[in-house]
């Protein structure tokens, strides 16, 4: 156990890498073996992230499970992995969505080998970002996570997939264009010649005039991936085009890389700039919430509805971060987790419906609850989470954010709550039109989810319920790290 | 005495190889005999060509081993005109490796007539010999001679392709640009000689740092022009698209990869004279930004894969130049690292071009070979040959600077080098350029991975050798990208020693 404790994070990171190697070695014709190896690898990494959760010490804000290895000392690059309360939920989220995503794609038949190979590369990147404590590696994994997305959407996607894939990749890499100078600039202007995040945060550097620019670049560069208004347009298009499990990973995990980047690099290293820019971030976040909700109201495609609702929910995350209070940041991190699970659930349900009805037009669906009770239940649970019904994880997350926001900026808080009301409207409208109402003859003979295909959905729903009934499970893990961050922010002028 | 031979070992090996290839190329088997039936003559020529291919492959391997054996050698040669040091020896290993892989790729090249194949091997070896001498030349005259040896071999190789056609235009363009830039370089060297009173590079460096002047900067830039031509940096790039597109694939692969490494190394040598000239920071930086912006924008419009690689090469030269504008040891190490990565990526891309070329016997109406490769011809590559598709993916993603390839780490090092000299905004422009570049690399990747194969396109048999090359070079690119510490400390030590001396 001692060995595992000191190498737990690297082991989690290596799971998808080993999975990639296994996938590469198995001949393409043996799809069953490929799927099985993917399921085993993702199951192991999910189990390891649960183990990580269980062995995490919530009493300290210091990095845990750290591993260090000199990499290129002359260039300030060190291999450092470690987690604190802010990254722990993200690792767990990735583990869960990875595993359920692999199970969801069990019926895939087209180019199976390549699909799982690209998925493994993507997940390796995502895990890497959440555990890296060195900017070089953080950025390396960040970019690694983006590119497989292009192929995953362009090859296995649906509606306008090539356009969507290209748009997504170019938006995200345009963000990287800002991150290159910003991240290298952090090392240069701090005068430390290191990319070690802990050293950079502890240095209390006076950034001078460059601080404003670097922080803005960090915020916009990472923010593109978090779907901040007005750079969110790639996101709904990408969600819609992507195949089911890729939508799950995309909305569930990949967008969190953006908000996590703002939190980890922007807020932690440059707290005084965060204080300066917080009003702008909050204003844009409110735009996200309202704009996403209203546009979702007008959509006719189920996936577009959820795509725009993601834009809205990511606004809640950014609003929580911008309040810079303990409640707001805890709520934001909680929301990242809850929204990740929730959208994964949404998309996996829509995936099943689309696979059988071959349509996602709300007006063409109807009465699905009688033919597909399981798929419908799953969608409705996710929908309830989306509008913040109590007993589901997002309720607590959104509640915390809204309380913090109302305290700090009453108007912004009020507008955000109004956005929630609108989202209740669109979710209930979708649920009413697609799942209830008169039964359509077209869908009478559609099969419901089998027991096996229902398993990943049940897991996701169970996680939502678990953290809904026991939010303290999450908040206790976060508390120490959030308090430490808030102290730093409050000490900043 | 033996020390001298040891120091000169890789060059001697290469010279020996070139001699052997020379005899195969002009050997008794090559002359035409009126009485011999055409069929038996053809068979004889093919036998000679295959013999030349295999000899070159073995010889290339031997030269690579010799270069590795000679890595620890150091000291001057030929009355100080030639300096063997860690930096030159490391670059010689890279050049030897590049030559070896190029010869490997050119085995049984389809785009050349059998009787020309021994000549291809001969001039590839001679050009590499020129580049090896370029890296060690410590004095302007020997530098110029080495530059011309490297260049003239290529002038001969470019028109060397099956049949005749518009590649002659490209060959002329190449030759005329080369001759003109080399004349300009010679003019610059003469001014440098006038300023310093010596043709020795270290002495000129000392003289220029004691007395920096605008004239010195101008002279140095003129001299650099000769190398910019080889690196195909804007505005010295006009030959590149035509040459890449129309010359045989094997020659294009050499010009795109190994020859660029030689150019970067030569650039590093020449810039030793300008370390104290502050204006170079702005001039090289501006040239770099122009080059990458122009190259990337022009590449967007390309429909031919080889032309696209040429323009992308113009942009990639810009990245290297941008890092170099920092003019310190970090920049030197980063540029060397990036050049190595670029060589590997080009090998992967041209592996695909060459293997695909074997299945496309494009012959024009006038009987000449069509050496172009439209991007559409890559359609459905994933189903026709998963190996080639993989090689292409690693190559393109590396060029696009996507991790975990060495292309990503190399860009990071280059950008860090220039940012540490205060080039924050330059890095931003370079980053934006990188985003533009991703678009056209993805267009190619899309053709290979997303577009289904055209009707009638058959599977491509990839034999063991291309697979081995994909695997070894591809893995190398990834391992080097994740763990640059395998090579970076050596490069850092080499460039510090060179700059310090």
Chain-averaged pLDDT of chain B: 88
Helix and strand element order of chain B = HHHEEHHHHHHHHHHHHHHHHHH
Helical fraction of chain B:
over 70%
Q: How much is the average pLDDT of chain A?
A: 88
Described by its quaternary structure, the protein is heterodimer
Strand content of chain B: under 5%
Q: What is the count of helical runs of chain A?
A: 19
How many domain units of chain A?
1
Q: For the largest interface in this structure, which chains are involved and how many residues does each contribute?
A: A-B, 37 and 39 residues
Strand content of chain A: under 5%
Largest sheet of chain B: 2 strands, antiparallel
Q: How far is the first residue's CA from the last residue's CA of chain A?
A: 45 Å
Shape label of chain A: globular
Could you spell the SSE succession of chain A in H and E letters?
Answer: HHEEHHHHHHHHHHHHHHHHH
Gross geometry of chain B = globular
Class derived from helix and strand content of chain B: mainly alpha
**CA-based gyration radius of chain A:** 21 Å
- How helical, in percent, are the residues of chain A? over 70%
Biggest sheet: strand arrangement of chain B: 1-2
